[in-house]
Amino acid sequence: MTEDRDDTTRYLCAAAHLDAGFADNAIREYLLEPTRPGAPSPGVDAAPVLGEAIAARRRRKLVDWSVLVLAVIALFTLPGTLLLVWLLLALLVTGAITAWQRRKGPVRPSTPPSGAVLGAVVGTLAAVVVGLALFTYLDSDPFASAYSRRRSRSEIYTLAEDDDGSIAVVFAVVVPLLAVLLLNRLAVWRLLTVQFHRGNRAGAALRAGLSNRPILESAPSRFTERLHAEYLSGTANEDPAAVPVVVHRGYHPFVGAGSTFEPWSIATALVRDEQREQTALLSTSALYEAITTEVAKLHTATALAPGARLRALSTTEHVIVSARELVDHVGTAEGAEFLAAPGQRPTRWVGRTRAEVLRDLPVEWARYYRCFQVETWDRDLVLSVYLHVAMDGSTLYVEWTPCVLRPIDQRFQQIDKARHSPLRPYLAGLGDLIRLPATLPARAASALTFLRRSHDDLDPDRYGSRDSLRELAQDPGLHNYFQLADTERYLKLLESRLVVAVTTLLREAGYSPASFEAQASTVVNNNIRIGGSVQGAVVAGSGNKVSSPLEPKPKE
């Protein structure tokens, strides 16, 4: 992996233009609430991704509003027969495309639930209007005889054929619609083939692509100003002597790390070994340092890891805080350390002294963790393990929570395999025109959906992060067996270092490690979690449940 290669950022920039749901969710998570810190996203430069999300949302708004205006004009100017045929053709083509997509894999909707409801309402109203227009153009009377209805229609058809003005009206309405749809497709095609091409992998080039973009200048200032202030200016100050704070909302506290994968914990009694001389002091701090030192030895274990990925194994500290509980503790001395006052942003750093107090004496809603992280497969797969230990004079507790950040959705990585023929956007634009009547409800929902901030100063959603950019675009499963095998490999290597570090420190502190070793052997060494064939996973060990959360589900 070259030093400036940034495929993950490039794919996510493309995702903003390929998936409206991703772009909107990225803006909601990072730019909507000024009091919400952006979620950490391993291997991603957030600035160009968020810039492209703003540009993509603005482009879609302009296109959808233009199409809606022209569609209304078409509704009251085009012959009713043409509208009806167009609608039926659009429904048939859309249904065929949907069936084909379902055969390839599950269809993932990008329209939020509220937009879907709004789209259904608009679609129903549009159907009513179309029906009324058809009755008007066909001059049909539901109570008239069949003969009179046939006569009325035949007269209209004759007039339409002889009237050159009708043809002019059709061209005057349809051509602008086609032009808007073609320009939209050409804009996206140029971005995918030039700006986000596989040869443009440097993060600096992706940032440079945000400059002099008229569409960004016309975007809402509340988004662009925050983008420049927090992600493009580079003014964020990091205190190397402090510990990062992550304020999370929702159930999952390890924001940005992906989904948990086989977590476990051990609680064991500390028993003195009278025959062993005490040469070290056993404490929570000593446990963390012993484990960190042992894990750091994997940096030189190049033969154990494909591509020598363990050389880049990182160790970081985190204080993780619950947003809901933080809001409940506003005004208290403990809460003020993380949130000075309602309406302000939570602190991103906590002093070393306070972090050490939380490490030794954790509270329910703010806890200290040490994280070991490995980025593999060109930063497309990330394994993070969160370690939390606690102890007193009689008991030792170890909490081990692995998290796997799965690869970026293959839909977005397909930009490297797509043909770059300029004919493709023209064909896609023509297809958009054919399917236009069927897509009007979704376009109306997109045009009429706005991103609104919360006005409640004590709303936990204003202060806590939930999804990182990578998590918003990760695939439901791993892409191949080797990725699953590598996940298991790195996890078992880290677990082996943990067991060695704890047992060694227990012996040096004059305690018997037998109880810890027995439990660790049951939890770690007797488990085989590598998934087998597509028929299921092979799991061994007592008390295990067959599960394979990282394997993609077989297609039906």
Give an account of the 3D structure:
- This protein has 556 residues and is of the alpha+beta class.
- It folds into two domains: 7-234 and 410-472, no CATH class; 259-402 and 480-525, no CATH class.
- 51% of the residues lie in helices and 10% in strands.
- It has 20 helices and eight strands.
- Strands 1, 2, 3, 4, 5, 6, 7 and 8 form an eight-stranded mixed beta sheet that branches.
- The longest helix is centred in the N-terminal third of the chain and has 32 residues, at 46-77.
- It starts with 6 loop residues before the first helix and ends in a 31-residue tail after the last helix.
- Mean pLDDT is 82; it is low at 109-162 and 531-548.
- It comes from Actinokineospora diospyrosa.
- This is Aromatic ring-opening dioxygenase LigA.
- Keywords: Membrane, Transmembrane, Transmembrane helix.
- The chain crosses the membrane at residues 84-102, 114-138, 167-188.
